[in-house]
Amino acid sequence: MALVGSARVLSNGGDADSPFPEIIELNVGGQVYLTRHKTLIAVPDSLLWQMFNQKTPKELSRDSKGRYFLDRDGFLFRYILDYLRDLNLVLPDYFPEKSRLKREADFFQLQDLSKRLSPKVSKENSISEEISQSDPEEVGFLGGAGGSTASLDPTRFVSAMTSTHTRSPSLESRKSGYITVGYRGSYTIGRDAQADAKFRRVARITVCGKTSLAKEVFGDTLNESRDPDRPPERYTSRYYLKFNFLEQAFEKLSEAGFRMVACSSTGTCAYASNDPSEDKIWTSYTEYVFCRD
């Protein structure tokens, strides 16, 4: 291992004219990445190209361990890095963070990537992914240019109104499936089982199910650190949420079209000490199963 300045590097086989090593360690919003120097400078005039081609190591920010630090979204940076490797964009199915990823692409000055993430606009100057197109004739008789409201056909009017309110393709194509959320909690009951039992907060809410569904529902509130590279069509039981409120998880599931179909809970009891007269500590584990048809 070689050191350049105080930066932490893993080899020194890079370009002889560059002050940077071949392999560079980055800290992006708390997420650690290892990549080659040539990957970071793959797109000329991008922000990373400017940082690692036009500047010296001493000019760049570092964390406490010497890694080059970028104060950006660590989760989304993996897609930025994937794009830089072969200049190709591959996203999971039902990826809910396109708008935020586009913002990251704009920040890193990756113009081609930003264009790919922009909503497609049709000839009628409307966003094709969000608004279903009506027949031009129907638009005309509803009061558009060249249309007349004096000779409305009620049948055509109803048909036009129905097509105007058609659900977007993205909603129609949502996959069915199950997601299970669970949590482990504990509370203490005194010797006389008094009403004011001492509850402890929920430490962690776990998420089990298909990876693509979990990412669609919870987005950037999903912590994938325990299972970071799970393919979209595979299942996982190692995700958990970045917040501790069950109601917030239920709201996200409801907004995504899921409904609760089952619930189960188990509990155990133990004494805080060997004295049976002391407070009892109850520990419970509860799971809620949600389904989208």
From TrEMBL:
Pfam families named in the record: BTB_2, H1_KCTD8_12_16
Supply one GO CC term from the record: receptor complex
SUPFAM superfamilies attached to this UniProt entry: POZ domain
Gene3D superfamilies attached to this UniProt entry: Potassium Channel Kv1.1, Chain A
Keyword presence, rRNA-binding: no
Q: Which SMART domains match?
A: BTB
Q: Which GO terms describe its biological process?
A: protein homooligomerization; regulation of G protein-coupled receptor signaling pathway
Query: Where found in the cell?
Result: Postsynaptic cell membrane; Presynaptic cell membrane
Show where the BTB domain sits.
22-125
Identify the main location: membrane
Chain segments annotated as coiled-coil in the UniProt record: none
Keywords for this entry? Cell membrane, Cell projection, Membrane, Phosphoprotein, Postsynaptic cell membrane, Synapse
Primary role = Auxiliary subunit of GABA-B receptors that determine the pharmacology and kinetics of the receptor response. Increases agonist potency and markedly alter the G-protein signaling of the receptors by accelerating onset and promoting desensitization.
| Name listed for the protein in its UniProt record | BTB/POZ domain-containing protein KCTD12
- What lineage is this protein's organism placed in? Eukaryota, Metazoa, Chordata, Craniata, Vertebrata
